[in-house]
Amino acid sequence: MHIYGRMKTICVFCGSSARARAVYLKAAEEFARFLAGCDIEIVYGGGHVGLMGALADAALAAGGKVQGVIPQTLVERELAHRGVDKLHIVNSMHERKALMGRLSDGFVALPGAFGTFEEFFEVVTWTQLGIHHKPCGLLNVDGYFDSLLALCDRAVADGFMLPATRNIVIADSDQARLLERLVSAEPRAAR
């Protein structure tokens, strides 16, 4: 039996920049090895560069399973990771996110930029609206998401967000503790 029960597949959103600091690349590799060791399959954006590539390579090297989901336009730019267990090529970014959502039992964002933020907050919004009931977490490497979390807190303080909505986002700097919190979470639509 899988030690984390219902959490068999985690979608990981992360940056594709080759300029990312080494601390973030190392964290992506460590998280990949950790998930592989827990027998949790990774679904990710299908790229071979930046944190995406580091994540996939480390998981595969550790014997983990990896599925990539990538739009055809990025395949044409030679950004696809051809060594993953399964590479889903889709027509658009919208299809990419929808398929990643269907394939996953939960979501974790590692450091990244606009694409990472947008993907993560879309799945958080799906939880808020009751479209799915899957946990959403941030692996807060080196305080990367501190400002983003402060913005969420400000949205609550200023009346734009309910505390229950803010609580959809689970953040932790420790990968094992984050996974435990995701597995025990019971995300609900925030009304």
Number of separate domains: 1
Query: What oligomeric state do the depicted chains represent?
Result: single chain
User: What order do the SSEs take from the amino end to the carboxyl end, as H and E?
Assistant: EHEHEHEHEHEHHEH
In CATH's first tier, which class applies? Answer: Alpha Beta
The helical percent reads: 40-55%
Beta percentage is 15-25%
Looking at CATH, which topology would you report? Rossmann fold
Number of strands: 7
Q: How is the main sheet built?
A: 7 strands, parallel
What distance separates the N and C termini? 35 Å
Q: Gyration radius, to the nearest Å?
A: 16 Å
Helical region count?
8
Mean pLDDT: 94
Counting helices, strands and paired strands, the structural category is alpha/beta
What's the architecture in CATH terms? 3-Layer(aba) Sandwich
Record the strand order, biggest sheet.
4-3-2-1-5-6-7
Low-confidence stretches: none
Looking at the structure, what is the overall shape?
globular
Describe this structure in words.
This protein is α/β, with parallel strands linked by helices and 191 residues long. It has one domain (9-181): Rossmann fold, CATH 3.40.50. The protein contains eight helices and seven strands, in the order βαβαβαβαβαβααβα. The protein has helices at residues 22-37, 50-61, 72-76, 93-103, 114-128, 146-157, 163-166, 175-184; strands spanning 9-13, 41-44, 66-71, 86-90, 106-109, 136-139, 169-172. β3 (66-71), α3 and β4 (86-90) form a beta-alpha-beta unit. The longest helix has 16 residues, at 22-37. The N and C termini lie far apart (35 Å). The model has no long low-confidence stretch (mean pLDDT 94).
